[in-house]
């Protein structure tokens, strides 16, 4: 039973990372690096939480979180795509702004409580011993994330818009010469990425940890950024990596529940140490990264040049 709870917690934790990382993957496939994921997730977390407090509807809360993430992404996109500001500096500024603004906006919501959460379960399957508790009693977004991953694989590899998006990330100059609106495509990709980061942030505050505290995203935005490189820009690997890093974060708490004495500092460190170790291993073979990395990632595009 304890192992079923560990798997269930891993799926929940991994869902937050997967949603955000898939959004960032869309950005990077178009050639844009957004380091503001942490700030967008924090603003979306408070937007979604506050919305549910006032409306009692979790799905409206998700929509509010996505809108908050998309709004911040639109500001970021306008700056880096049309005003050609540095992508890395602008993303860091967005992350700092999101951290400060969410703390300010969330002051009066620290003690608020959400309505009692709906219990979800897939009929019949949820009653199967061990397996039901581990896999079939989750919020619908857990399953929708898996479905969306499959859709994104199909979209990027089998559809014309997906191939155009990838071509913009590979060579914006060539795409522009063929008549594609490179800046508009990049902006739409940034909006989609921001909306998904917003969904991840709101899921965190509404479902995963149904409360609001300052800085509650706690580095998940940075881990999501690392996931795209870990996965070498492949959606399926993003999903698997999200569950891996989410599971590492939950493993320490599981061991504590089994009586293993682990200092709390190590528990806080473990989830962030795992991506560092994995990325260090991957970096020993640059070919793994270059194989799928968009050629123009992080590079500005000047239509007149």
From TrEMBL:
- Which of UniProt's keywords are assigned here? Cell membrane, Membrane, Transmembrane, Transmembrane helix
Query: What topology in the membrane does the UniProt record assign?
Result: Multi-pass membrane protein
Q: Which GO terms describe its molecular function?
A: transmembrane transporter activity
InterPro entries, per the entry:
ABC_transp_permease
Keyword set includes Transferase? no
Stretch forming the signal peptide: none
Q: Where, per UniProt, does this protein localize?
A: Cell membrane
Which segments cross the bilayer?
6-25, 32-53, 59-83, 90-110, 140-157, 187-206, 212-231, 238-256, 262-282
An example Gene Ontology CC term for this record: plasma membrane
* Zinc-finger listed as a keyword: no
Query: What PANTHER family does the record point to?
Result: ABC TRANSPORTER PERMEASE PROTEIN (PTHR43370:SF2), SUGAR ABC TRANSPORTER INTEGRAL MEMBRANE PROTEIN-RELATED (PTHR43370)
The protein's name in its UniProt record: ABC transporter permease
Q: Name the species this protein comes from.
A: Rhodoferax koreensis
């Amino acid at each position: 039973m304890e192992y079923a709870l560990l798997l269930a917690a891993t799926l929940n934790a991994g869902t937050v990372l997967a949603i955000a990382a898939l959004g960032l993957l869309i950005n990077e496939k178009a050639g844009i690096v957004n380091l503001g994921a942490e700030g967008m997730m924090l603003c979306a977390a408070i937007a979604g939480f506050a919305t549910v407090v006032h409306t009692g509807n979790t799905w409206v809360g998700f929509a509010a979180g996505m809108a908050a993430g998309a709004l911040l992404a639109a500001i970021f996109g306008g700056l880096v795509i049309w005003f050609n500001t540095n992508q890395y500096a602008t993303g860091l500024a967005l992350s700092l702004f999101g951290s400060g603004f969410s703390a300010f906006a969330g002051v009066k919501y620290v003690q608020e409580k959400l309505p009692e959460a709906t219990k979800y379960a897939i009929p019949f399957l949820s009653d199967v011993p061990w397996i039901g508790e581990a896999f079939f009693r989750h919020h619908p977004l857990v399953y929708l994330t898996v479905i969306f991953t499959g859709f994104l694989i199909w979209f990027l590899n089998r559809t014309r818009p997906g191939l155009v998006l990838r071509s913009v990330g590979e060579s914006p100059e060539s795409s522009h010469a063929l008549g594609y609106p490179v800046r508009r495509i990049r902006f739409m990709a940034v909006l989609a990425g921001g909306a998904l980061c917003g969904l991840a942030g709101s899921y965190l505050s509404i479902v995963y940890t149904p409360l609001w505290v300052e800085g509650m995203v706690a580095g998940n935005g940075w881990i999501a950024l690392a996931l795209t490189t870990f996965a070498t820009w492949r959606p399926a690997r993003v999903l698997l990596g999200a569950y891996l890093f989410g599971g590492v974060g939950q493993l320490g708490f599981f061991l504590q529940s089994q009586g293993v004495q682990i200092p709390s500092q190590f528990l806080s460190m473990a989830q962030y140490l795992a991506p560092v170790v994995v990325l260090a291993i991957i970096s020993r073979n640059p070919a793994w990264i270059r194989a799928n990395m968009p050629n123009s990632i992080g590079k500005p595009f000047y239509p007149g040049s």
